[in-house]
Amino acid sequence: MNFSTAAIMGAGSLGTSLAKLLAPKLEAITLVSVEQDVVAGINSTHRNPKYLTDVELPAHVTATTDTAVALDQPLVIFAVPTSAIRPVAEQLANLGLPATTPLLSCAKGIERNTGERMSEILREVFPQNPIGILTGPNHAEEIAKDLVTCAVVASENQPLAVALQQLFTLPHFRTYTTRDVAGIELGGAVKNVYALAAGMAHGLGLGDNAVAALVTRALAEMIRIGTALGGEKETFVGLSGVGDLIVTCFSEHSRNHRVGHAIGTGKTLKEAVDTLGMVAEGVPNTLSIYEAARKANVRTPILDCVYSILYQDKPAPTAMRELLSRDPRPENG
After folding, report:
1. Which residues contact 125 (CB under 8 A, 6 or more apart)?
2. Which pLDDT belongs to residue 333?
3. Could you tell me the CA-to-CA distances from 270 to 96, 149, 181, 216, 310 in Å, in that order?
4. Total Cβ atoms within 10 A of residue 136
5. Which regions of the chain does DSSP assign to beta strands (E)?
6. Secondary structure of 112-160 as H, E, C letters
7. CA atoms within 13 A on the CB side of 214
8. Would the pTM of this model clear 0.90, i.e. be above it?
């Protein structure tokens, strides 16, 4: 299984960075976007005018608003927000995407109401297509600058996993494989919630000791949620679990941390999101993961804390104080 070209659905920060990353490996890359100004900018200046504006794209990276261009590509990469995965997939299916076309999901989240992971949505829409997932501690801003990054690919189709691993292996980008599709997707989704919590703690000025403890306990909570929903415990101490958790909780590039920090300093959720100007997946993820955790009857005090702040209007200082004042318990209990 070899790839000479690819279509990337979505020309935001992630899609743009993936185009830059894969340019040395592919003969042509087409970014598909609903934003006409983004498409025009990429095609005329080889730069995205809205996202990662300082990144120059090679001439063989082009953009279009025509979704149908993906139909004859040997690989279709989904780099849209989680809320757009289903409608974009359904649009491609209605256009007649071949059942043999491999699909790669790079979105991190769980769908509201259904509780489905991104690969499960793709499998519903495309019952026969080979499907892979790429995730890990990989902020788009650093990928686009060719900074050293590691990632992990999962697929039930081993030939596809190996082919994607080869495609996503460059001198500055190292990719591992796993068969635990559920685990790597759940890690990539759940960590967004804890990045919000870490940002809130930083914004409240609780100190490094508190944030370190919060992130450590978040990992334990992530493992409880992830294993209850079908992932393997070992996966959550790997790149897609603790690796992604660390970078999202502490990086200056983390949108979720920035939104949480703004809330911790006194801004409302709307003010924090409006100031960011981009999608922070942890906000809708908190709602969908909270619902999934309740159905699975998992103990999730940190998730509950973030949920109460975002969706029950509880002041962040009050919620954090209640989190810290819970009854003592064994660390591994």
Report:
1. 86, 89, 90, 92, 93
2. 61
3. 39, 32, 33, 28, 10
4. 23
5. 5-9, 28-32, 61-64, 76-78, 103-105, 131-135, 149-155, 173-178
6. CCCCCEHHHHHHHHCCCCCEEEEECCCCHHHHCCCCCEEEEEEECCHHH
7. 27
8. yes
Taking the alpha carbons at both ends of the chain, their separation in whole angstroms is 46
Q: Which residues are catalytic?
A: 191
Q: How many helices (H) and strands (E) does the chain have?
A: 14, 8
Q: What residue ranges of the chain have pLDDT lower than 70?
A: 278-279, 333
Burial 274-295 (b: 16+ CB within 10 A, else e): eeeeebbbbbbbbbbbbbbbee
Predicted confidence at residue 181, as pLDDT, reads 96
Q: Where are the domains of the chain?
A: 5-179, 189-324
CATH assignment, 5-179: 3.40.50.720
So what CATH class is 189-324? Answer: mainly alpha
